[in-house]
Amino acid sequence: RGADFVVIGRPILDSADPVRAAKRILEEIED
User: Fold this and answer.
1) How far apart are CA 18 and CA 10, in angstroms?
2) What kind and span of H or E run contains 30?
3) Which Gene3D superfamilies match (predicted)?
4) What is the C-alpha to C-alpha distance for residues 31 and 26, in angstroms, rounded to an integer?
5) pLDDT for the residue numbered 8
6) Mean pLDDT for each consecutive 10-residue tract of the chain (31 residues)?
């Protein structure tokens, strides 16, 4: 799970809405 955060870190930072992007990715990881 830790590696996922490393991989997705950059898209979140580049996103216009980092918080929403992070929440959406967290939901996808949990599914």
Assistant:
1) 10
2) helix 18-30
3) Aldolase class I
4) 9
5) 60
6) 58 77 84 77
Q: Which long-range contacts (CB under 8 A, 24 or more apart) does 4-9 make?
A: 4/29
Position 9, amino acid = G
17/31 Cα distance (integer angstroms): 22
pLDDT given for residue 4 in this prediction: 59
Q: What is the DSSP string of 1-29?
A: -HHHHHHHHHHHHHSSSHHHHHHHHHHHH
Give the contacts of 18 (CB within 8 A, at least 6 positions apart).
12
